[in-house]
Structure formats: structure tokens, C-alpha cells
Design a protein that fits this description.
Length: 398
Amino acid sequence: MYQLLSGLKIIDLTTIVLGPYATQMLADFGADVIKVESPDGDLFRAVRPGRRSDLGVQFLNFNRNKRSIVLDLKSEDGRRLFYQLVADADVVVHNMRSHTAETLGVSYPELKRHNEKLVYCYAPGFADGGPAEADPAYDDIIQARSGLAAINADADGAPRFVRSIVCDKVVGLHLAIAVLAGVVSRTKSGTGVCIEAPMLESMTAFLLSEHLAGHSLLPATGELGYARMMSPHRMPYRTRDGYMAILPYSTRHWIRFFNLCGKPDLAADPRVTDAELRSEHIDELYQEIAGLAPSRSNAEWLEALQAQDIPCAAVNGLADLFTDPQLLASGAFEQYRDPELGMLQQLRSPFRLHDAGEQTRTPDQRAPGLGQNTRELLQGLQLTDAQISALYELGVVA
């Protein structure tokens, strides 16, 4: 991990993917992320495969560089210890519904009583104040409600889920940005702040940024949906021996592409040379690519298109990523031996520091076991060994 956020203390109440993805990025930059879990632990710990019951591989991939403490927030003693952790924290972050946070005693008004300068960020499924504010939400629910499943429909028009936990991860990025914005605001103003990053509203803004299209104008001019994205001929194109993404984008790209393919008439066509006309006729031009793509192999296309600086890529399967020369050269994958779990492979943080010095990066720490750091964190609150043992016996901590 890097050290850009060294000294920033984040109390992390998040679970599953959305919140842990956000806080892992902050931890990768050096923040001290203290993951507070119930005695049952984050549900994502149990997702298999895994070599230990509390360390499934999915959990490992979203929780590195963090510390874990188990506190029963439903108990008075558990809440008291939590408030002690919050007292000198910089940030509290969660992805609960507001009424759940209130029930547990971790709402913003409550925590502000213990730390007036606290940055408090949360990502509920639906924005507070709306009729769905108390409804449960997971990735599939937001994919359905935000319109993502519909625009990802199959050839028969049936909606499909994207095969990635995409809403959780996109909103996780929003949540991480909210935390950083809150920290900057407090640095400038000296006061705390509460920032909400709701899932449905974040994903709607994410998708409609381009798909609001002609409805950006009132009265509306044109349909909803960015025409280039909605084209039925925008696809990985079948080549002689596989599939390719072939994307002439600028006027120069399109002219070069059609000349390369022996189509000088199309290269000079106003639908190609005029940017506005090209936008109106983009589906026809994509159809031309689909018709030309089978004439060459992937290797032949890559050689020819790269020579013309036309954007292109062969379609990788998941297994192909481990031999992609760019990913190998950038060190995207790291293998190491964990003394307990054996050989592990993890994804390296994609961020790279320049000028600050790559040598400032320290080895990543494996995601913590459930409650792995409970005792050391309680000792940091100046509790005696006898007091800590009593808390364990009562089940307040674990």
C-alpha cells in the first residue's frame, strides 16, 4: 500500500462489497481502516471457495490492508467501546439504511456528540426521504431498478444482469470520493460533515450521464439512450478466428479504417467525414465493420489496425487476463505465501505514484480474520487485560 493517507483513521461499518470496496481503496492509500464487525462477521466472509471459514476468497479481494474488531453494537458495552473508537477517528463509513444506523446507535447525530469534527459518509440503497428509503437493496436490485438490466437486454429484448457486481463497485467509488471530499472539507473548514451516496440515485446519474441524450433538452429532441451505445451493431465483431473490438472513433480513424479495408468510397463519404452526420448514421457504419471483420484473423487485424493507430483489442476471456502482456508488465497480479493459508494471488492496486516514489509502497496486508485485531485495538483504548478478558466472557467482543 501507499502512504498518501497515512494518519487518517477510518471506522468502517460496511459489509458485503459496496462499502468494503470503497474502504479498501482508502486503505491501499495508507488510511488506517478499522473494520467493525458483529459477532457473526461480514456475510461475505462465508462466500466460497476459501481455506478458512472466515476468509473466503471474495472477502480477501475486498478487505486487504484493514484491521478487524468484533463489537456487539446491540449491547450497551459494545456501543460504549465503539464511541471510544469514534472519539479520535477522522471518518465513519457505512452502507446501512438510516433507520438501521439509528437503531444501532451509530447515526450521524449520535456520533457527532462524540466527535464534532467527524466525517460521516454512508451509502444506503435509496436516498433518505423517498418512499423506498427503508427498502433493502443489493446489486441485482439496483441493476434492475436503475435501468442497467434493461439496456443490457439480450437479442430478444429480455433484460439481463451484468455479470459483475457492478452497481456495488460503481457506488463504492462514489462512496470513496465522498470520504475524500469530506476530509478535504474538514481540513479547510475545521468542521465535520455528513455525506450520503445512495445506490439508486448514484447509478441513475452514472447511467443517464450519456443516456439522457435528447431528453437533456426540453422539449425533448430525440430518444433516451446514447445512439452509439444503443446500436445493435455495436459489439465485439466476429473475425476469421475469434472476436475483436474494433473502434474507429475520430474522423481520422474512420477514414483510415475504410482505406485500409479497400473502401475509398466510404472513406470519402460525408457520413464518415462529417462528425454530425457520422453520429446520425453510426449504426450503419458499425454494420459495415461487422461485414468486414470476418475477412481477417485477430492477429491480422491487430497488426493492421495498430499500424494505423486505430483503437482495437482482441476479446479476452477471464483466463486470458493472466497472460495479457500489458497486465503482466504492470504487475497487476501478485502472488505470495501466507503462513496460514498457503499460496495466494491478489490484484495489485491499479494506482501508480509518480514523483512521490514507488519505494513508498509497503507490502499489502492480507484481509484480517474475524476479530483478528480486537485485542490490540482495545488495548489502544487503554483497557486493562482484565477488562478485555471480561468483555470477551460477556460476548461484547470477539
